[in-house]
Design a protein that fits this description.
Helices cover about 55% and strands about 0% of the residues. It has a domain of about 50 residues. The radius of gyration is 24 Å and the shape is rod-shaped. The longest helix is centred in the middle third of the chain and has 26 residues. The chain contains 2 helices and no strands. It is mostly helical and about 80 residues long. The termini are far apart.
Length: about 80
């Protein structure tokens, strides 16, 4: 689950938990809202934790340049 899906689930869960006043037989909409809200927040937190270790979209690789000042470059 990515960050966008987590935000989407959190928003839908908050709407169902706090803004909907209808009742459906056999289903408690407020409970479904709370479940989606919790799953969305957990997804956002996990996405942020793994985002820092993964490096973001595209898998950016960092290059390291080593400069040796002791010897002249080849060809001199």
């Amino acid at each position: 689950m990515g960050l966008g899906v987590g935000i989407f689930l959190t928003a839908i869960g908050a709407i169902l938990a706090f803004a909907v006043n209808k009742t459906v037989s056999g289903l408690n909409i407020h409970t479904v809202g709370w479940i989606l809200l919790i799953v969305g927040i957990a997804g956002i937190v996990l996405s942020m934790i793994f985002w820092s270790s993964w490096g973001g979209p595209g898998g950016v690789r960092r290059r390291t340049t080593v400069v040796d000042d002791g010897a002249p470059p080849p060809g001199y």
